[in-house]
Amino acid sequence: MAQTMTITAEPRQETGKGIARQLRRAGQIPAVVYGHGREPAALKIDQAELDKILSVAGASTVVELQLGGKTVKTLIREVQRHATRLDVLHVDFLEIHAGEKLNVRAPLRLEGSPEGVRNQGGVLDQVLRDVEIRVLPRHLPEFIAVDVTELTVGQSLHVSDLVIENAEILDDPDTTICSVVPPRVEAEPVVVAEEEEEEALEPEVIRKPRAEGEEEAEAEAGSPEQEG
Prior knowledge:
Layout: E1 4-11, H1 17-25, E2 28-35, E3 38-46, H2 47-56, E4 62-67, E5 70-81, E6 88-95, E7 102-111, H3 115-118, E8 123-126, E9 130-135, E10 144-147, E11 156-158, E12 167-169, E13 176-181, H4 194-201, H5 214-222
Parallel strand pairs: 1-4, 2-6, 7-10
Antiparallel strand pairs: 1-3, 2-3, 4-5, 5-6, 7-9, 8-13, 9-12, 11-13
């Protein structure tokens, strides 16, 4: 079952970018709750309290909003963050009810050490991190365990291999979850033979071609004149 966490929220009447900036400067985060036929309601939440929730909450974590003396069961639908600082700017909560099925993305957790990694030198490559399911709130899983123990090099697991009790899987069955790939082979360094290396280091001498008659002139200048 999915974990449940609790946070206090207060309704707010004023909305807009200016109000949102004022709230954040005061250590509060603007939020909204909607769903189950209700009109969206603007909220404000203590930033420190929200940070604790977001540090551990996942897409399937049930968050109970303590709102005006009532408890509203929700899921975190969207967290808007600053582009560079990553500070939380706004949070959307989706109200849920016991008899109403939800479409959520549940995290996948790979369990075990694959045969192909243990004995064949392969590498486990996880492609899919979560899967979309349709499920009642009481059956929301905290995560979906995927046993990879029997995977050998070249083998993969797909969405079609998943079995999730009390839930309908919505993702494409042919989508790959993970696979064991062959180990990477590093190219051996090229060894240059000693003779070839010396040849490579020795500069090539390119001589200027001699003009016609130069060779004869050099020969006459270099040999002593014979006396008769």
